[in-house]
Amino acid sequence: MRHLTYYILGIIGAIAFFSCAEDVSDLQQEGNPVLQIENQFSNVHFGDNLPFTATVSDDIPLSTLTAILYFGEEEVARTTIRTKEEGEYKGTISVPFLKDIPDGTATLEFVLLNTTLKSATQSFDVPITRAPYPYLILVTADASYPMLPTGQPFEYAATEPFPVTDLPAYIKTPVVDDKGREIIFGWESGAVKQDVSENIPFVSPVGGTFSVTFNTKTYQAAPFFEILLNGEKMTMLDKQNYVIDANLTKGQELTIEGLEDIATWWIDADYFTEIEAGKYKFNPISGKYRITANLTLKYFRIEVLDGNNPASLKADGTGAIWIIGDQVGKPSYKENHVGWNPSNALCLAPIGNKTYQVTLVAGESVNAAEINFKFFHQKDWGGEFGSAMLSTDSNIVFVGNGTNGRDNGNLGLVSGTTLETGATYIFTVDLSAGNDKGILKVVKL
């Protein structure tokens, strides 16, 4: 059998590595390993710790008994027991509990080896199903609620007069038999995952009595707060951040739905021109962008993408430029300071002709009395604009060279100058003459 061949080859390789004196190719397989396992594998569910009992014997010393579980051709679980003596051995093998896997028949293979690598094998077809739990349990910080079957396949619901609409909770299953285990469903990387206890950020759009639902096969859950960009649902990263990647066109009209307080949100003028609350014109050049809605700060963070990753500056001057440094941040440099943390980097808006723009309001998104940030080629350390690559004739801002009061490439305010509190300043970086001949302009509106 193919699986056994790989297993034996692996052991032979290990022996060759650890023993220089013995020629493994001359190893003679001896003995007569006998493996007896009764078919004990009925009523098996995903997530079970499946027990087995094996009786083994041989006329020479035995080595190991290995149980291997396959879903189709893929090995999904393995457990090995040392078998120093003849007799009865007990063990368990874990059956994975995974999203979207349909009921089916797995293969459970047992391999008994003696010390000369002679083997005996036995295989079983094991039907595995998703357990029809009589209920699930919704666990919040203050209480637990039963989730009962809804009649839809694998779907459960808790319908209660919950005390709040913001209901962070995780979900757990009961243990249905002696080989079952408790499965916990929590939140990780913006999705429901098994065996994770971080709370799922359930949020209801209405108060009073509402339902929390969960499907143990698809992991679909509700209710969640929804934000739509031109009808497309944004993905929840956590209860305060929603994200969507979208191909956008310069001048395109965008509609944002689901935010009742959208009229109070801070709108980034580099990227959006407001037509009315919830409706905007897109300002930068056409391309792929990531839009993150931050419910705490009430603003949309927009970043240029290259494929599915934040874009970097390309050799031809296209791509993206990023700000990392002090005394700057949107919508407020005090509440959302960029600092020297690349993950917080601000993306300049590409406005065409290899020119990039950031609009800052003194006293709000930039410190009026002091600045100390620089432009980078990527949302990380690496390529950056030093004084040999970036120049300016501004009488407001200078580019540091390491000896003029700022590190090389860091921006500062000209001595004796401050920004006018409340005034808007547009910083543009023009690379049309080449990446090493950047021109910085600072214009007060």
Task: Characterise the protein shown here.
The structure is a single chain. The protein is elongated and about 95 Å long. It has one helix and 37 strands. The model is unreliable at 1-25 (pLDDT under 50). A hairpin with a 2-residue loop joins strand 20 (235-238) and strand 21. The chain is 4% helix and 46% strand. Strands 9, 10, 11, 12, 13, 14, 15, 16 and 17 form a nine-stranded antiparallel sheet that branches. Strands 2-8-7-4-5 form a five-stranded mixed sheet, with no helix packed on it. Strands 19-18-22-24-23 form a five-stranded antiparallel sheet, with no helix packed on it. It folds into four domains: 2-129, Immunoglobulin-like (Sandwich); 136-222, no CATH class; 226-310, no CATH class; 319-445, Immunoglobulin-like, CATH 2.60.40. It has one helix spanning 2-18, and strands spanning 34-36, 44-45, 49-57, 62-71, 74-82, 87-94, 104-114, 119-129, 136-139, 144-149, 155-161, 166-172, 184-188, 191-194, 200-203, 209-215, 221-222, 228-229, 232-233, 235-238, 241-248, 253-257, 272-276, 279-282, 287-294, 299-306, 309-310, 322-326, 346-347, 349-352, 355-361, 372-376, 390-392, 397-399, 411-413, 424-430, 438-444. With 445 residues, the chain is mainly β. The protein starts with a helix and ends with a strand.
Strand content: over 45%
Biggest sheet architecture: 9 strands, antiparallel
| Total domain modules | 4
Distance between the termini: 77 Å
> What is the average per-residue confidence, as pLDDT, rounded to a whole number?
92
